[in-house]
Amino acid sequence: MNLSIFFALYFLVTGADAFRKWHPYGHDYLAHIGCGIYISRTVTFADTKNNYIKFCNNRNGLATMVGCLADANYNSTRMLRYLQMSCMKDFEIEVPWENYTTAYSYLLQSGVTLKLLRDRKYNSTKERLKTPVYLNKTMSTLYVKAEQHYLDIYSNSMYYGIGTVAYWGLVCVIGAIANWSMILFPSLRIAIDGRVSKLWRKWVTLPALFGKKKTAMQRLGFFSMLIPSRIESIVSLLFIALLIAVNAAELHFLEGDPIFKNSRKYALIKYFSIRTGVVCTVLIPVLLLFGGRNNFLMWLTRWKYSTFVAYHRWIGRWVVLMAFLHSVGYTEVFIIREQYAEEMAENYVIWGVVGTVCGCLILFQGLLYLRRNWYETFLVIHILLAVFFVVGTWYHVIRLGYGQIMFAAVAVWGFDRIVRIARIMMFGFPEAQVTLLKDKLEVIVPRPRHWKPIVGGYVWIYFGDMKYFWQAHPFTYMHDENNVMLYCTVHSGVTEKIAKKLRANPSGPSMKMRVTLEGPYGTSSPIEHHSDVVFVAGGNGIPGMLNEFKHLLKKQDCKQRLQLNWIIREAFNFEEMAKYFAELPLLNAEVNIYITRPASFESPIGLDASNDGDYKTEAKSDTLSGISLLQSDYPELNFFSLRPDMNTLVQKDIDDAANSVAFVTCGPAVMVDELRAIIVEKIDLTKKRVDFYDTVDVWN
Ligand SMILES: Cc1cc2nc3c(=O)[nH]c(=O)nc-3n(C[C@H](O)[C@H](O)[C@H](O)COP(=O)(O)OP(=O)(O)OC[C@H]3O[C@@H](n4cnc5c(N)ncnc54)[C@H](O)[C@@H]3O)c2cc1C
Ligand SMILES: *[C@@H]1O[C@H](CO)[C@@H](O)[C@H](O)[C@H]1NC(C)=O
Ligand SMILES: *[C@@H]1O[C@H](CO)[C@@H](O)[C@H](O)[C@H]1NC(C)=O
Ligand SMILES: *[C@@H]1O[C@H](CO)[C@@H](O)[C@H](O)[C@H]1NC(C)=O
Ligand SMILES: *[C@@H]1O[C@H](CO)[C@@H](O)[C@H](O)[C@H]1NC(C)=O
Hints:
4 domains; 6-stranded parallel sheet; elongated; transport; binds 2-acetamido-2-deoxy-beta-D-glucopyranose; Fe_red_NAD-bd_6; flavoprotein; ferric-chelate reductase activity
């Protein structure tokens, strides 16, 4: 938490610093540039270089400039002071003040008109003037306006970009208020459980977007995906609408615009390319912040990592889309300017292209299909591409004056990495006892005294083996005074490699192994003030549920009615964990164990959070003797040889509840989604307060 506050400050400081170092173009500056372009396109002066130095040390150039500014109504004292200052700053020429005050009268005295020059067939490449020039007043004004209109696009793009960042700030503040008010003032839960609140939760904050699928993926083969919840979808959609508005706002053509040679198409393409480029860059720090494990906003809002990852993905898609449109737009601009070859050879353009290409690749390499099947490969490539995206963008924008934003982005990323290392160091590298059970690994890790667990949280484990020490895997845990206990289903990655090692171990499937834990992450469910709490665990979802259940048992003084339901396939699933059920102080609390396939001992496939699992398989009711044995060994627990009907279970618990009931669940995705759907349906059919907390955090 302290770290979070520190990180929040750090983020705000680097962000504010980025903004402080950025300046919008002042209108005086732009007036002088506008006139400069007009004059340079029209005439040249003798005895001077053909750049802006002519408006400092060349009397005629200076007088023509002052005349142009006077035409555009910009010849205030402040403006002339600005000219004097910029001569000092850009060319280190100290121009006496009276050169400015006398310039206008000098123009009146000796100026020639454009008409005169035309009549003389004046050609600016051939002839250099020794007099100041009266310009065309209409054109002077137009040039100044056009330049201001053009460069205001840059400044406004920055403000619009900051607006999109502020949107996320606002969303997070609303989330923080909603979630923390329930923690700090638990009685609010009942107090504001009116019709509106119930309907709001029923229709907006709780349900899956459509139907039931939230934790379970939408199967579409190669294009399978996780669908954000309804509220996440609403937040993302509003963000997208905001981005569309922001990218289109105020991009209009100034009639007769001389800077863009009166080409509407050229001007609009350029404006749009600037806008997409700047807004894209400003969002990058937020993109990286949301992707990090140690994002301080998680502490502020109490949202899950998966929520931020969902937003990370949506921001990422649009950042890349904007980068892409920016690139296409500028390609067109270069072609219109007939500078394609030269521009594309410029370093900053090359880095921009690198960034855009890497960004586009990320969109494809990040598909769920690839993440699910080759997670570690996905992760390594994702990080490499992201590094190149960030570095490319940094080199691209640094000379355009937006380097500070990328500095903030990299700072955010670096901070996340540093905190990870610090957490690992704080945990140390103890020797864990790793044992292969039937279908999972039991990892018992001695914990340092100062390590503070989060009840219901999770940790990332690293195994000390040269081949996979760089991999981190998230697991929920149980803890006691001395140890942290993980139960890891054996899949085909690291878990399988360790299982193999254990199988090959001559002295049995158990050995000491150096590990470290990074964490804890996650938040506890706010369930300490409900009159009734019902845990529903499926398969390997048990460690976190059991940990929260035990924690409440210890705390509740029998004031809360507690119920733990655990749905497993076979008796051995229970037996492996039986030691934790031995001496539970079950007063005003019950534990129900549902064994869905009591007779089949041949399929050792457990259920775990990240898999859909077919927990719906019907119970067989052959031999139930195993179960009656269990029942007599653990008389205080209730064993059932069936799959519970969730609907009935939920309804009964709502009916039995005193005044409020929290359902907390962890288990196979399909089960969690079904439970959510059932509770969403019932939430407004009772006077009691009903809450649902799914502790499954699936981001991949
Ligand atoms: C918050 C959280 C808590 C979890 N708690 C438990 C638990 O208590 N018990 C349990 O058995 N499993 C748990 N899991 C799932 C567990 O993290 C994966 O099963 C494990 O990482 C698989 O490792 P593997 O190398 O054998 O996987 P592989 O065989 O390579 O892949 C199997 C599946 O795990 C996913 N996966 C692989 N590596 C990671 C990773 N580093 N981060 C996220 N997903 C990954 C893959 O996308 C794939 O779907 C939890 C997952 C999350 C996100
Ligand atoms: C300022 O004006 C004086 C008088 O015209 C001229 O001699 C001098 O060179 C000017 N100074 C600069 C820096 O141009
Ligand atoms: C500004 O321009 C006006 C004419 O538009 C002129 O009368 C005035 O003297 C100019 N001021 C300066 C400081 O040159
Ligand atoms: C001015 O002179 C240059 C060089 O001699 C020539 O190429 C150009 O066409 C001339 N411009 C006009 C408008 O006559
Ligand atoms: C000034 O320029 C405008 C637009 O090009 C033109 O219509 C107008 O005739 C010009 N005025 C003079 C005095 O040359």
